[in-house]
């Protein structure tokens, strides 16, 4: 059963994530499996060394030079569907913009450890992270293409700072490592077709295994500073925009790029 708008907003405000089982229908699931498999094979050919060393994800799936017109049309139809809009609008009520797509898979080395992180730690110092926590909304919309262990999250950490133990683990300091277990961690396993929405700034780690294959679509607030690095080649053209149910986030990103100096 699809979640109501108020339930989506309430779940997010309380925990920083929203789980919607069986979001994709079977046809959409099979389409995305075929599209992402084709993209992944090409990506592996071009990034074999990176994959063998440490890669766990790729990005820019909808780039016009990396995906056929047919596959782009099909993917935008799914990620720009009315059903997707029903999951985006309650969390970005003042308008949403499309940032990127990412494909997550298991590391080549089965001994490679996962790691706790906030996406923001790659952009800011811990002091800056703490100061801006909760002021920016960037959301991952993770579509599981096969059954997988899922994600482990620290509920509420989208607007709550790390405990001393959590900070030590996340930053791998004071004798702790970023893969160490944390008491507040909540695992969310995913079945094929499930949707998990989570805040990019919350503490989380991917759970490897079972040949995970998951498509993340990133949406954010319509803000110039968040959208200045969007790749225009990953956005749909006018024809696709005119044919999908929910063109607004893609149009917002295009408009933001036009205004970038």
The overall pLDDT, averaged over residues, is 97
Please give the share of residues in helix.
25-40%
Number of helices: 10
Level-1 CATH class name: Mainly Beta
The CATH architecture category equals: Sandwich
Structural class: alpha+beta
- Say how many strands there are: 9
The biggest beta sheet reads: 6 strands, antiparallel
* Shape verdict: globular
> Which stretches are poorly predicted, pLDDT < 50 over at least 5 residues?
none
Number of domains: 1
Order of helices and strands: HEHHEHHEHEEHEEEEHHH
CATH-level-4 superfamily name: q2cbj1_9rhob like domain
Based on CA atoms alone, the radius of gyration comes out at 18 Å
Give the termini distance in whole angstroms. Answer: 45 Å
GO molecular function, one term: 2-oxoglutarate-dependent dioxygenase activity
Keywords: Dioxygenase, Oxidoreductase
Organism: Alteromonas alba
InterPro entries: Phytyl_CoA_dOase-like
Describe this structure as you would to a colleague.
There is one protein chain. This protein has about 260 residues and is α+β, with helices and mostly antiparallel strands. The chain has one domain (about 5-260): Sandwich (Jelly Rolls), CATH 2.60.120. The protein is about 35% helix and about 20% strand. The protein contains ten helices and nine strands. It has a six-stranded antiparallel β-sheet with strand order 1-7-4-9-3-2. The termini are far apart.
């Amino acid at each position: 059963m699809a979640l109501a708008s108020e339930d989506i907003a309430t779940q997010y405000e309380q925990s920083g994530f929203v789980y919607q089982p069986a979001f994709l229908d079977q046809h959409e699931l099979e389409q995305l499996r075929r599209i992402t498999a084709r993209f992944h094979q090409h990506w592996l050919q071009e990034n074999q060394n990176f994959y063998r060393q440490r890669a766990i994800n790729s990005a820019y799936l909808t780039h016009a030079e990396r995906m056929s017109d047919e596959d782009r049309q099909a993917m935008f139809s799914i990620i720009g569907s009315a059903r997707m809009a029903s999951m985006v609008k309650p969390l970005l009520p003042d308008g949403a913009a499309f940032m990127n797509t990412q494909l997550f898979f298991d590391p080549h080395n089965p001994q490679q450890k996962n790691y706790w992180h906030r996406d923001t730690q790659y952009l800011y110092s811990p002091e800056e992270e703490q100061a801006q926590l909760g002021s920016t909304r960037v959301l991952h919309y993770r579509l599981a293409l096969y059954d997988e262990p899922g994600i482990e999250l620290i509920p509420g950490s989208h607007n709550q700072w790390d405990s001393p133990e959590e900070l030590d683990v996340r930053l791998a300091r004071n004798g702790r490592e970023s893969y160490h277990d944390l008491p507040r961690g909540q695992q969310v396993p995913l079945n094929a077709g499930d949707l998990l929405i989570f805040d990019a700034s919350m503490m989380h780690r991917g759970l490897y295994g079972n040949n995970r294959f998951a498509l993340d679509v990133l949406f954010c607030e319509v803000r110039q500073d968040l959208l200045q690095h969007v790749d225009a080649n990953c956005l749909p053209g006018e024809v696709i925009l005119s044919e999908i149910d929910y063109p607004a986030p893609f149009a917002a990103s295009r408009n933001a790029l036009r205004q970038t100096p």
